[in-house]
What does this fold into?
Amino acid sequence: MATDNAASKDWVITKALNKLKRKGYKLKLRREAICLYCFQLHEWIMPENFSVDDYYYFEDILNPDEERILYAISLPGKLKGFLIDTCNVYTDNISPAMMQKLKLNKIRSRKNDLANAGKRRKADKLINEALVF
It folds into this structure.
């Protein structure tokens, strides 16, 4: 079952990535501790030299270590790229400037809000089921 979930998530990420590529986000980026690295340009891009246009969060309920974020990123010279990043791995090895630029605190807060909302719904359901008896 986990394989089906992973395959489904991969398909959704691929679909979102293809949509971004059609919008011109074609450069592949990798997150480093203090900057991004662009594979095609063979350049490091500092936080002040890129902007996050959009991001998509992909949750994996069965395996939280498999959660991903897809970023749409603009670079100088009207260049556009994408970054697929893990949510929980190596976030302690990132500069404050990169955390702020990639909105990691905002994403974590939203993720916690969603998780707490899910817990509340589950608790409400259990209370309603208990009231039936």
